[in-house]
């Protein structure tokens, strides 16, 4: 199967956009969660307005936020690098073969 230049370029552009989105996601993760962790440890409490709560227990939710975001980032990583991880290729091939076999059995059943 030969791809023309337009199709190849479109696929490459799509891949670059996926990678840009992934790296943007990592950057936002580091910046936002870095600030939240600095806030939780008390490093940034001097910069907060007086009415803002400064007790450390108030920021306990930050740990859960970081954990959930790490899980989301893990799934994003698996999606972006799906072609690089052989497990997914092998799984894909097994699924294709499985459905082909099922279709063949149905056809043979009615012969």
UniProtKB/TrEMBL annotation:
<feature type="transmembrane region" description="Helical">
    <location>
        <begin position="61"/>
        <end position="81"/>
    </location>
</feature>
<keyword id="KW-1133">Transmembrane helix</keyword>
<protein>
    <submittedName>
        <fullName>2TM domain-containing protein</fullName>
    </submittedName>
</protein>
<dbReference type="Pfam" id="PF13239">
    <property type="entry name" value="2TM"/>
</dbReference>
<feature type="domain" description="2TM">
    <location>
        <begin position="10"/>
        <end position="101"/>
    </location>
</feature>
<feature type="transmembrane region" description="Helical">
    <location>
        <begin position="21"/>
        <end position="41"/>
    </location>
</feature>
<keyword id="KW-0472">Membrane</keyword>
<keyword id="KW-0812">Transmembrane</keyword>
<dbReference type="InterPro" id="IPR025698">
    <property type="entry name" value="2TM_dom"/>
</dbReference>
